[in-house]
User: What shape does this take?
Amino acid sequence: MPVVDARTGIYILIGNPVEHSLSPAIHNAAFDVMALNNIYLTAAVETDRVGKALDGVRALGIKGLNVTSPHKEAVIAHLDFLSPEAEAVKSVNTIINRFGSLEGYTTDGEGFANYLDEIRLSIGGKKILLIGAGGAARSIAYAVAVRQPGIEICVINRGKERGEGLVSLLTKSAGQGYFEYRSLDDPDLPALIKESKIIIYSLPHDAPQFLDALSQTGSIDPDSYLLDLRYVPPLSRTMKLFSVQGGKVYNGLGMLYWQAVLSFKLFTAQKAPLDIMRAAAGLKKGSAASGDWR
Assistant: This one.
């Protein structure tokens, strides 16, 4: 890593918690190999201090941020510009500081799309079950819907307002397709799980309602996939149970990698060193995510 001096550019991941994040290792490895005088750090920020944190970004001249849960929505009120996609999904995971003007972007949706391409998982014509309706889930659903006309997505979320809001966004943005909302407590959830070919799990915890519904499904079609956006632990309880039932599972490490690649390009306006970033994430060259646990 280059020597830190008065000219070192500072980049920070904010969220809570952030201690588990691999983002510093990924970005610092990229800065190092590219001989960029930058450093990437983490900062745990409480929800009621997000605005003050971004004031500090301006005051200290911090060059950029990544944003993780639970602040992807809260940061928006404190930004000066949003990319069209970030504006649409009301979620930001990358911020660029341009001389005191803070610009918000989201790499979640495109990162997920790249992840699907890498594991060669086609979503065309397959029913998708999206568990959760937070910032990452909205970005992913939006990206998937606008890229795949006619796609079918069922949004499962505890909160009705947020779930129906996502369905409304997808209906307006995609033009074609079928989108519906169901509660996490819906008695038909076991049947929905069984008939869905792709399940995207975006909750930060193993929801008891989902685990219970999954346990009621019996066998799962071996051509069904569950993509858990978490990567700590690498094999979640949700993934384990889905795999035991017969389906294929992937964790979110591959998606994290692609998000980082896209953020790096925004941070530096340079092509990301893919192999270096992949190795820093603990991924083998050409692997999907080290997360196909079948």
